[in-house]
Write a structure and sequence with these properties.
The radius of gyration is 22 Å and the shape is globular. Helix content is about 70%, strand content about 0%. The chain has helices spanning about 1-20, 25-40, 50-85, 85-90, 95-130, 145-170, 175-195, 215-235, 240-255, 255-260, 270-275, 300-325; strands at about 130-135, 140-145. Helix 3 (about 50-85) runs antiparallel to helix 9. The chain is mainly alpha-helical.
């Protein structure tokens, strides 16, 4: 039992490290963070609510870019190893196929959670940067937190610069190093910004962020974990490109589930089964609940977590059954 646990941890760690070393993963994460940062700086309207555009855009970026991060990381971590023969070499050792498969999901899950932490932190700061009306002894009017915005942009370029220097001097892998430094940089800006107000003046420590964004981001992360489980199950019998295409199609059907199948549920068997089996991604997109100071109840978050765990367990069981009969090169 101890040996199996050690094998699981080792394989999961290697999966996470290998995923972060893929250039496309770093590019997707960096693009997500930069777009989140730049949105409030380029916005011309606030749509009747301060920070709403920055908040909704940041959450949308997390969902869209996370879709490709989850699908690519999950399918490439398994399909590529099956195709290259790495999986066959590992399984020739005393490594159980079930442990190998589950460790892949654990490693990919860690990568998705790391991506979500970076994305939601950028979203919280982006909402803080957004233009809002202030009435103080010094300022009357709309103010943008340019200091925090500047630190955020600088943290991205600084992480790339340090990663490049470490790669040149110490031969550290550039992609994974830059990704780690990017997370550290965004979190550092998050802490430093707490010592200043929106005007850039030193002020007693207060994060001044909308914590109610956090539950919505957690729901998006749950959806990405479900998608990663689906991608991993498909990659046991399909190549990377085919798996990504199926995942995008699965995502699109889930978004249209109520329209395509929901109205016929209970009347016909096929639409009823499709509506039951397809995850309705709309239940994980609760950005509209934040309008006018609203929030997502933690009871809803708990219900979504139970559904996510149950769905992932079901999909992984199917994936394990498929992987047991997969041909290793």
């Amino acid at each position: 039992m101890r040996l199996q646990f050690r094998q699981f941890v080792t394989l999961a760690t290697l999966t996470a490290v290998e995923a972060t070393r893929q250039p496309i993963f770093l590019l997707l994460t960096t693009t997500c963070v930069l777009l989140t940062i730049l949105t409030p700086m380029l916005a011309l309207y606030n749509f009747g609510e301060d920070g709403r555009l920055a908040r909704d855009s940041g959450l949308a970026y997390q969902f869209v870019f996370g879709l490709f991060v989850a699908a690519y990381a999950a399918c490439s971590s398994l399909a590529r190893e099956i195709r290259s023969g790495t999986a066959s070499a590992v399984l020739s050792k005393p490594v159980n196929r079930d442990i190998f498969f589950l460790s892949k999901f654990a490693g990919v899950s860690f990568v998705i959670i790391a991506f979500s932490i970076c994305s939601v932190t950028a979203t919280l700061l982006s909402e803080r940067v957004a233009e809002r009306f202030m009435l103080t002894s010094k300022t009357v009017g709309y103010v943008t937190d340019w200091q925090t915005a500047g630190m955020l942009v600088a943290s991205v370029f600084l992480s790339y610069l340090i990663a490049g220097l470490l790669n040149y001097k110490l031969k550290q892998p550039f992609e994974s190093t830059a990704f780690g430094l990017l997370i550290v940089g965004v979190l550092a800006v998050f802490v430093i910004s707490g010592f200043f107000n929106q005007l850039g003046d030193f002020d007693p420590f207060d994060f001044r962020v909308q914590w109610r964004i956090l539950p919505v981001s957690i729901l998006i992360t749950m959806a990405l974990l479900i998608l990663a489980a689906i991608a991993l199950a498909l990659s046991s019998c399909l190549d990377t490109i085919s798996t990504v295409i199926f995942c995008v199609a699965f995502f699109a059907l889930g978004l249209l589930s109520d329209y395509l199948f929901g109205r016929y549920a209970g009347t016909f068997i096929a639409p009823t089964l499709a509506h039951m089996l397809l995850p309705n991604w709309q239940h994980f997109w609760m950005s509209d609940a934040l309008r006018r100071g609203g929030s997502v109840p933690w009871s809803y978050l708990l219900s979504a977590a139970v559904y996510t765990v149950a769905y992932i367990i079901g999909v992984l069981c199917l994936g394990i059954a498929s992987f047991r009969h997969a041909d290793m090169k």
